[in-house]
Amino acid sequence: MQALMAKGGLSPDASGAFFLAEVPDPVPGRWDLLVRVAAVSVNPVDTKVHARLASGGERILGYDAVGTVAAVGEAVTGFAPGDRVYYAGDATRPGTDATLHLVDARIAAKAPQTLDDAAAAAMPLTSLTAYEALFDRLGLTDAARTNAGREVLVLGGAGGVGSMAIQLAVWAGARVIATASRSESAAWCRELGAHLVLDHSKDMPAALRSAGITDVGAIFCTTHMEAHWRAMAAMIAPQGALCLIDDPSGPLDITVFKSKCASIRWEFMFARSMYKTPDMARQGAILARVAALLDSGVVRPTLGKTRHGLDPAVFAEAHLAQRSGRMVGKQVVVF
């Protein structure tokens, strides 16, 4: 099979940062699906893993895919060759930027029937991250219109994860406050259902008070936690909960949340597959639920940019765009 290799120690636009290689076809294990990949997306984690690769180190990146099942492992149920599936993969295994890929069937689901490959490939990682953050970490109820009276603040609402978090929280009946710093990203958040949009480059606590809101019970910070740390401490309600996904560059003072007895929780979408937790099949169930929401039109796809070809130059462009911090929605590469 062909695989796109990323080389460590090089910026995405450097010669040799990405290259094609012929590698042996993978053989499915007991729980695996062998998938013929049709499209993948590029996420912030791709650029972070590339940046952390040792100089000269090589790795197949990619943490989202849609494709067709070519073979199944002996323990797999519910899937058969020919099924169209989508999934976010496993950080401990080779990535999806290849023509063939192995994934544990328990963290995959049938792809949304109403979406083409590009739109479907944009959904798994961000959907899982947003769903787990809202319903497994922040304690919202994961059913339609069941969270009346609850408010959620989504920092970085126009990104891939934020875009899904807004829609899922609205579906669940919560009042959503999102943040964005540009007019086009603010408009995107409103289109997705945000009731209020704050500018995270300005004084958010003051803007929240100006809108007549003293504090919020749940905050989901999707990016730049250090820049927003004290603002979040000011905006969180007593006994509220904060969920984080990005890594700080250094220690942070958690005592700013002490007087409010606020909970600080982490969301790491790969934890279930990385540690083979007893409930790892919940990810497959979540993706099936999201597929149903997409097919029914309750949730809209978040595809922002489509690129074409398992080509080093194409992936270099995608990585540079991802690192710009100006993405609205998701970008996908169709093979």
Automatic annotation (TrEMBL):
InterPro entries: ADH-like_C, ADH-like_N, ADH_Zn_typ-1, ER, GroES-like_sf, Lipid_raft_assoc_Zn_ADH, NAD(P)-bd_dom_sf
Keyword entries, A-Z: Metal-binding, Oxidoreductase, Zinc
Gene3D superfamilies: Medium-chain alcohol dehydrogenases, catalytic domain, NAD(P)-binding Rossmann-like Domain
Keyword Ligase part of the UniProt annotation: no
Pfam family, any one: ADH_N
GO molecular function: oxidoreductase activity; zinc ion binding
The Enoyl reductase (ER) domain, residue ranges: 16-333
SUPFAM superfamilies on file: GroES-like, NAD(P)-binding Rossmann-fold domains
Family label: Belongs to the zinc-containing alcohol dehydrogenase family. Quinone oxidoreductase subfamily.
Protein name according to UniProt: Zinc-type alcohol dehydrogenase-like protein
Species name: Solidesulfovibrio fructosivorans JJ]
